[in-house]
Every structure is written in structure tokens, then in C-alpha cells.
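This follows on from our talk about sequence and fold. Can you supply me with one protein entry, sequence and fold together? Could you add the entry underneath, on a fresh line?
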Amino acid sequence: MSVKNLKLTDKDFPPLLKEIPGAPEQIFYIGSLPRADKPMVAVVGTRKATGEGMRLAKEISRDLAKAGMAVVSGLAFGIDSAAHTGAILGNGKTVAVLPNGLDPIQPRSHYGLAREILSRDGCVISEFAETRPFYKAQYLERNRLISGLCPAMLVVEAPIRSGSLSTARHALEQGREVFVTPGPAGHPNYEGSHMLLRNGARLVTNAAEILEDLKGINPEFLISAETETAESVAIADNIQLVVFDTIKKSESALHIDNIVETTKLEPNIVNQKLTSLMLEGLIEENNGKFRLK
């Protein structure tokens, strides 16, 4: 896809980004920019995330997307990638903001994730020209864009020395709402998170709490404050949906042979769909049997 650009003075320049201190003179992007009336939430956190942090970021982002919100993050390892993946699983729009030019996409190992974002009507953005290489200082410059695009942001797992804290500081300076998920006392991945909570950030544990708080602050932020569970997630693949519904309707965990018998699908097809459903975090396998997660 071709790289497009908008200048700060253009009417289609993202309105919230236009109003921040040090707004970029222009942005470069691939894909579809969110509509001006599309509510957005930034989801950020450490690159060296725990499994629980990754699960929580993915789950919350999925439910925010299903409630009609676009999820903004930085395409980095850890929490960022979990946030983008969660939004995709929620059949929603997600926006990746890079600290370098868009050619090539960085990190290169997330090129596939970027393609998936774009295939779902998402967007990859940078304030830097197409071939601008990465420099460490550009992380801090990029962070003000992540928070600047959104009326609110969520921090999941932020160590005391974390780029996420930089993004949170930008968010506070920009007058944005800051939400934080708490963690175990003394865990280094949450030292920055707990500092934000002590300084007045809003403690949340799920998407419903974020949506409820945003609705109270400004109802115009939201399309819907109703979230869905993993059991009701919209699955685009009809065959995958058949397998999912078979497991869902069963009172006990099912062996693959039971699923093949019920669905009348080929065993290799069922196995493929089971793998996809497990990767999406919708089902789990135990002793060769499958059930909802």
C-alpha cells in the first residue's frame, strides 16, 4: 500500500492530535485513518511483559474493540503487540504509531502483524518521512502521538524506567485520562504502574470499567459501553465458528473425534480450526479434550 501524508493545516488531520503541545507538522500513514468521531484508547506497556500482562492487554483491547473503540499502540514487542492482536480478535480497528519511517515497517518481525492491522481497515502512522531510520530518541517523540490521538490511555505493566511512563506523562500534559491495571506488590514490572496510581491515575481491571468511567466523563467518547465475553466473539471464518459453537454447546470437554462426528468436517480441517481458536485464546486443550477458555 502507498504511503500518504497529511499536514497539520489539512482539514483531515486528526483533530485531537492537532491540539497537543508540539503537534507534528505532518504525519505519514498507510491504511485508513480513524474517523474524527471514532473513539480511541491507547494501550501501552513494557516490552518485557509477563504472560498475565499479555493476556490482560489482549483481553481488554479485544473488549474495547468490540465496544466500538479503536485501539492505538506502538507495534513494539510485549504489551503493544498484545493490544493490537486483541483489537483484531475483537474485529475492531487498531492504529500502530511508529518511531521511524514506514519503509520498512519496524520491528521487521512484526511486519505480518502490521499487514493484519491494515487488512482490518487499520492504520500505521509516523511523523517521520518514509525511509527515516530508527533512533532511540524517537521513541520519546513518538509517545506523544500515541497519547495525543486518544482521549484516554491504559497502562499495562510499566516498570519504573519505562517508555510507557513517558507516554503517560504526555497524556497527563495533554489533558487525557490515564487508566492503569495494578499488579503484585514489589513486582518490578508494576513499579511505574503503581507510581501512576499513587499520583491519581484510575485503577481498572477490565474493559467494562474503562468504558464506564469514560461514559461518565464524556458520553460522546463512546459508541457503546456494553462489552461481550469471549464466548460471543464474532468469528469471521464460518467453519471456525461451527467448531467453536460445537464446543460451546457441549456440557463437557470434547475430543477431536467428537467434534468431527458432530460437525461432519474432515479431521484435518477440524484440527486446523482448533489450532486457530487456541491461538486466539478462545478455547483450551487438556488431556486431548477441548473446552471454552
User: Anything to note?
Assistant: The domain at 235-292 is CATH 1.10.10.10 (Arc Repressor Mutant, subunit A). Residues 223-234 have pLDDT under 50 and may be disordered. The longest helix spans residues 51-66.
